[in-house]
Amino acid sequence: MGKRGSDWALCLALLLASSGCNQIGPSTIPSARFEYNEAIVHSFDTQMLLNLVRLRYQDSVLFLDLSSVVTTYERAFTAEVAPGGRVAPAPGTLGASASVGVTAGGTWTETPTISYSPLQGEEFAKRLLAPIPARSILLLSRSGWGLERLLICGVQHLNDLPNGMAIGGVALMRVYQYDKFQHVAVLLRLLQEEGYVELDALPAPEGASEGTVVLAAGPVPMTPDAEAKAREVIALLGVPRLGGPVPLEAPTFPRDPVSVTLRGRSFLGVMTFLAQHVDVPEEHVRAGLVRITQGADGKPFDWRRISHGLFHVHCSTDEPQRAYVKVQHRGYWFWIDDADTEAKGTYTLLSQLFALQAASDTIHSTPVLTIPTR
Fold it and tell me: Is residue 264 within 8 Å of 132, Cβ to Cβ?
């Protein structure tokens, strides 16, 4: 075989090899990027649900942070041209033909490097134990989250109104005061939905605490019914108007902004509150594996009286077929219904609170014990 035949065969081999590697290079980005994205989100959601279920049983929780994902791709190609013998011409033709053997091969390698780090030490205190700052609640409100969900899940006190429980890792034996707080949260949600009020960061009164936020006028003028709801909020909270007390008989709110002192729960407190909305098998209740919180009347407390259906985790022996997120623990499946938009919304809020706590630059009111070693 001449040089021209050899070159032609080599080109043919290269063409065949390149056509089999059409997923190499830039074309790998769309599929690989979204597959990793999907896997990371699924992993985070499953880990969060597992920790909620663990808290329901008062088991230890652990967060593994996904620090980095680095993936390298490598391809290698080999081709070999083996000349064959000459073939006799067919009857009625001139000359002879040459046979050429072509062999080609290639490899495609993907090498991901994924780094995990457990949440511990100062980072654990900052993200799980430190109170959620008022500025985070304000930021989430401005991004479109409803005040009822934000306040009920993430806030422990509005002025002197307690939100049912002062929790931090374990469920309480009893729940006492929560009804006034819950009613204020519902009223503020109704006023916010209609555009009558919104949280703001206007300058608070001199000497106000770091957790002070401002209820200010929304874009929509108040109706008489909205003014009545606003006066009820003022009466329940006892909030002072900026510059002086608010006369309850005068519908000044929200034309004159009013300040509210907000004390956030810790992220672990938010998780523990939501963990009380995890269904558990009756056999586990009878065995004393979970704590049943009592109300002021001494009877088992129904947490829906506070949350109003904002969150619910189901439990079943069989794997659920319509689950937004699911996890196995102690021989049972725990899952959030994919059609439960309220629970899914609260679950998304939980992930955003977790991210915001990571962005906090200080540990608010959280002492860190440092023990020197030799």
Answer: yes
- Where are the domains positioned within the chain? 3-86+97-118, 121-359
Q: Which two tokens stand for residue 199?
A: 């949280």
DSSP state of 211: T
Structure-token pair, residue 249: 């008989």
Beta bridge partners of 368: none
| DSSP annotation of 27 | G
Pairwise CA distance, residues 270 & 255, whole Å? 33
Alpha-carbon span 350 to 240, nearest angstrom: 31
With beta carbons less than 8 A apart as the criterion, state whether 253 and 329 touch.
Answer: no
**CA–CA distance, 255 with 253 (Å, rounded to integer):** 5
What does the pLDDT profile of the chain (374 residues) look like in tens digits? Answer: 555 555 555 554 455 445 444 555 566 666 677 787 888 889 999 999 999 999 999 998 888 877 767 766 666 666 565 665 554 555 655 555 555 565 666 666 767 777 777 777 788 888 888 899 988 999 999 899 999 999 999 999 998 898 886 554 567 777 878 899 999 999 999 999 999 988 887 554 555 556 788 888 888 988 999 989 988 998 898 865 444 444 444 445 556 677 888 899 999 999 999 999 999 999 999 999 998 888 878 888 889 888 889 999 999 999 999 999 999 999 999 999 999 999 999 999 999 999 998 876 544 443 333 333 33
Which string of DSSP letters, residue by residue, matches 327-360?
EEETTEEEEEETT-HHHHHHHHHHHHHHHHHHH-
279 neighbors 169 (Cβ within 8 angstroms): no
Provide φ and ψ at 294, rounded to 5°. Answer: -105, 150
Pairing of strands 212-217, 197-200: antiparallel
Task: Assign 30 to helix, strand or coil.
Answer: helix
For residues 61 and 47, the answer to whether their CB atoms sit within 8 Å is no
Distance between CA atoms of residues 272 and 249, nearest Å: 40
C-beta separation of 349 from 149 below 8 A: yes
Q: How many helices (H) and strands (E) does the chain have?
A: 11, 10
Any idea how long the chain is? Answer: 374
The DSSP secondary-structure symbol of 302 reads: -
